[in-house]
Amino acid sequence: MSDLSTLWEVGLPLAGAGGLGYARARAPRVFWSLVGLPVARVRFAVTYRSTMDVCGLTVQPSRLRAFMVRTVARRVDVQPVPPSIRRVRGSSTGMRVTLRLPAGLEPADVVAASERLRHAWGVHSVNVVETRPGFVELRMTGYDVLRRVKMPRRIPSGPMTVPVALREDGTAFVRDYLKVPHALTLGANQSGKSMYQRNLIAGLARLPVALVGIDCKRGVEQRGYAPRLSALAVTPEEAAGLLDALVGEMEARFDLLSEYGAADVWALPDKVRPVPVVLLVDEIAELFLVTGKKDEERRDRMVTQMIRMGQMARAAGIFLEVCGQRFGSDLGRGATTLRAQLTGRVVHRVNDKQTADMGLGDIAPDAVVAVLTIPPDRPGLAVAGDSSGGWSRIRTPELSATETAALCAQYAHLTPRVPALEPFRPVVTVAPTVDTAPLVKPVPVTE
After folding, report:
1. Residue percentage of the chain with pLDDT more than 90
2. 3-state SS class at 369
3. N- or C-end of the chain: fewer Cβ atoms within 10 A?
């Protein structure tokens, strides 16, 4: 009986500790909810004032406050004032704290101290978001949510909103074409750039939009999505004609806007509003590279057409998604001008610092260092920035080309027909069966 009780007293704690260790490694959400969150909330409540003071996030109180402390509380020393806590919420991935900033502090001060706050409270990351003037939200994550991507349940929705990846603060990274109409995605081979594009196409396939693809690698990436594409170009010659057709469609839409006195297609009546068009360029360098002088005229025309769309196509409901390994002045004339029109930036792992500067150096210089620290064994991890100077780490969920092609076939009935793009409409064919038999039959060995 004593042996049984000893086994119970010793084995039960060991089993519990082993279970928590397994949960921490294999089920971090469960471990955080059971252990990490309670510990973090207690540590935050106990050390909040001292942590803010050490991190320089306190200000001297106003004269009225100092007078009230001395007269009502009868205290001689008046301590500095930290941001007041308005709300604390826990979640399965972290904790969110809403702070009211006192006079003398700005959100940039809290952002500068975010790394120190992370270490002080023992959390994986602290992201600072300004919710409204005078208020910031500390979005803490208890563990690395980007190690195993699991999209959140609550995702922002809209007529042109597509969830693409997961941010490091546990929220969804979405492509909202009404806010950021054109975007550039950069990354080296095996960095996850194609995975990002697959998630983007999978989300767009569910929306009533016209998808137009340019894949000058003979369509090896985008031909499988043909059932959902309204147009596809697989050679530079076809791309030149397709871009001319898109510019013609854009000009026709501007005539329609002028007729109705509307600023953009969203101000048109539903019965005459043209369908939005998203142009997906798989490898932008293939449009710039030329093999001789005879190709320069075609290259210059294609670049000019893309620059025109980047400058004006948003109002006409035409949006650009450009992907590539590099995108700088070394590609040729017009490259930097076109890049300036692509507001959204997503940069995966790159081979050199210059490429990171091309993608984020002009809009978020601090993000360049974050790009250079992306490890090669984490494909899909990237840094996303925008023209406001903000940036965040993101990672796309794993999605194979076969799954993306199946989604495109499932939503093929949503593919609209755009008359100007009909000559470039892809022909959907059944892929040939690959014979896996050896080309040379083995010679039998005779004894």
Report:
1. 31
2. helix
3. C
